[in-house]
Write a structure and sequence with these properties.
By secondary structure, this protein is an alpha/beta fold. Helix content is about 50%, strand content about 15%.
Amino acid sequence: MSQKKKFRVLISVFDKTDLVEFIQQLAKIFSLEIISTGGTAKHLIKAGFKVKNVEKITKFPEILSGRVKTLHPLIHGGILADKKNKEHLKELRKYRIKSFNMIVVNLYPFEKTIKTKGITLNQVIEQIDIGGVALLRAAAKNFQSVIPLCSIDDYSQVIKKLRQKKDLSFNQRKKLANKTFQLTSSYDKLIVKYFS
């Protein structure tokens, strides 16, 4: 039996619907290294997965009430490195940065928050996702090297494709990148509209 390909995935989700099932299916295809944040990490560990907290990678704790978790070169360097670029690969080795294969992120529910009766400005501000948007945009920019996954609706289709070929095609990756940029764009529009 052939050895499973190593697959490094960063997961940070607000909505954890179907996440455990998705990772279970992913683990049948690949030898997973799961990197995760706070609540998502706890959720996955409880489900029996081996998970490395982002803090273990960055050697830096979550700060500012969780506002800063993933904004770090050891995370974003691993997402933005073009695996076809020799200079990028050289820099990864130099700074001991491991690249990612997939980013699974969904955002704080800003739209739901602003529709909540009696919500305060400070509560709204805390629901403006910064790290999640940065992770998604980085992965979408580098979609040829990293799979950006921003929607629970895509879990089953992505698993189906990965089960068949152990990878996604250029067009499948590009489609996920497009969906990611659509999400972050509409998210920003909601924020602009609120502040207007």
